[in-house]
């Protein structure tokens, strides 16, 4: 992976961490919906972004969530709550990610270009500045979009991120369960 891009990502995550108030144990993560080839941004996906914008309007202005638009697709920066019982990703964030993927599909059906599949990706910068990225799921615009499947794959990927960090720092394994 391009070291220059990784440095740009590190800087973006550090800016996010500096502006948002993390609680002890919280982990800053990026959830990216990236097109496999071509672009997925407002200019070429106006139908999708109309849906995405209406979903984003449901979040309070003082939300700790940061939504970033990139040519390759939208990115959500959020804190993952690492609690005694495991990890917790808010249902509203899962709903937003599901809405973005559905919006892409519906947008393509209405004429947004290109029609390439999207990948759901979880990324983060670990202590020591190590970069980690995991492709969670690949979805074509004709594929059925199941929120439960998206949630399941996100949970598994996020649990793996947290458990790897726990092992590095000598803490025990944590189990995943999200509050409503």
What does this structure look like?
There is one protein chain. This protein is α+β, with helices and mostly antiparallel strands and 180 residues long. It has one domain (3-169). Helix content is 39%, strand content 23%. The protein has four helices and six strands, in the order H-E-H-E-E-E-H-E-E-H. It has helices spanning 3-19, 46-56, 91-109, 147-169; strands spanning 27-35, 66-68, 75-83, 86-88, 118-125, 131-139. Strands 1, 2, 3, 4, 5 and 6 form a six-stranded antiparallel β-sheet that branches. Helix 2 (46-56) runs antiparallel to helix 3 (91-109) and helix 3 packs across helix 4. The chain is globular, with a radius of gyration of 16 Å. Mean pLDDT is 85; it is low at 170-180.
Name some characteristics of this structure:
180 residues; 39% helix; disordered C terminus; 4 helices; alpha+beta; single chain; globular; six-stranded antiparallel β-sheet
Question: Helix tally?
Answer: 4
Radius of gyration: 16 Å
Nearest-integer average pLDDT: 85
Q: H/E series, N to C?
A: HEHEEEHEEH
Outline the biggest β-sheet: 6 strands, antiparallel
How helical, in percent, are the residues? 25-40%
By DSSP, the count of extended strands is: 6
Number of domains: 1
* Bulk shape: globular
The poorly predicted ranges are 170-180
End-to-end span in angstroms?
A: 36 Å
| Backbone structural class | alpha+beta
Strand content: 15-25%
């Amino acid at each position: 992976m391009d070291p220059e891009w990784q440095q740009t990502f590190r800087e973006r995550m550090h800016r996010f961490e500096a502006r948002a108030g993390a609680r002890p144990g919280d982990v800053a993560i990026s959830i990216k919906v990236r097109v496999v080839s071509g672009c997925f941004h407002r200019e070429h996906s106006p139908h999708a972004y109309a849906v995405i914008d209406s979903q984003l309007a449901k979040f309070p202005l003082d939300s700790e969530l940061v939504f970033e638009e990139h040519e390759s697709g939208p990115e959500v920066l959020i804190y993952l709550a690492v609690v005694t019982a495991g990890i917790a990703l808010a249902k509203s964030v899962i709903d937003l990610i599901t809405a973005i993927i559905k919006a892409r599909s519906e947008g393509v059906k209405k004429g947004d270009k290109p029609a390439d599949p999207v990948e759901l990706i979880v990324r983060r910068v670990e202590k020591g500045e190590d970069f980690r990225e995991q492709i969670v799921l690949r979805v074509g615009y004709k594929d059925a979009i199941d929120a439960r499947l998206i949630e399941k794959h996100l949970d598994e990927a996020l649990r793996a991120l947290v458990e790897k960090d726990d092992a590095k720092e000598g803490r025990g394994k944590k189990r995943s369960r999200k509050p409503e």
